[in-house]
Amino acid sequence: MSTNTFNIREIKPQDNREIAKTIRAILIEFGVPKVGTAYEDTALDSMFETYLKDKSIYYVVIHDNKIVGGAGIMQLQNSSENICELQKMYFLPIARGKGIGSKMMEICLSKAKEFGYEKCYLETLPYMDDARKLYRKVGFQSLDKPLGDTGHYSCNMWMIKDLK
Q1: I want to staple 154 with a disulfide (CB 3.0 to 4.6 A). Which of 33, 70, 72, 84 is the partner?
Q2: d(CA 18, CA 157)
Q3: Poorest-confidence range of 59-73, 112-126, 144-158?
Q4: How far is Cα 39 from Cα 29, in angstroms, rounded to an integer?
């Protein structure tokens, strides 16, 4: 299956229900705790509205008229520094291993630079090996402790990338 059968676009209001369902299904697939992770985020059910904030954007990946993943950036919560957070980057199995994660990362980091962010932060889990490989490949470095206050206390791996 080629990557040209997948389309990436900005989220629309009518995508809210489907992206929330998709992300929760992926989190369950990976055995992610339902508390202290994106699973319980209230924003998950209103993603379009959540990313209407300044210097924020969320993209969805479409395949056969269905949402199969997404990713976004937003100012890191409770941080006074000019740092965005790469948020809710998840893909269903059909979208994995096809370069879509790399493309999505390229789009999000490019937008972060366009918005003027100096750094990009993310949180992940130890068993998300493929995701961590991708993050390292594009220049993310591991941190010893979390930044900001995302509320994702179950995520115990933190990474940052300089965007300058």
Answers
A1: 33
A2: 27
A3: 144-158
A4: 12
Q: Is the pLDDT of residue 26 over 50?
A: yes
Dihedral sign from CA coordinates of 132, 120, 81, 142: positive
d(CA 116, CA 80): 14
Measured in Å, how far apart are the chain's first and last C-alpha atoms?
35
Residue 104: alpha-carbon gap to chain centroid? 9
Provide the 10 A C-beta neighbour count for residue 40.
15
Identify the CA nearest to 74 among candidates 25, 41, 96, 33: 41
- Residue 25: in which H helix or E strand, if any? helix 16-29
Nearest partner of 74 among 49, 50, 99, 40, judged by Cα: 50
- Residue 107, both tokens: 């789009």
Instruction: Give residue-wise pLDDT tens across range 102-138.
Output: 999 999 999 999 999 999 999 887 767 788 888 999 9
Any idea which of 125-129, 141-145, 149-153 has the lowest mean pLDDT?
Answer: 149-153
How far apart are alpha carbons 93 and 101 in whole angstroms? Answer: 12
Element spanning 66, H or E = strand 66-75
| Token couple for 99 | 């370069």
Q: Give CA–CA dist 49/31, Å, rounded.
A: 28
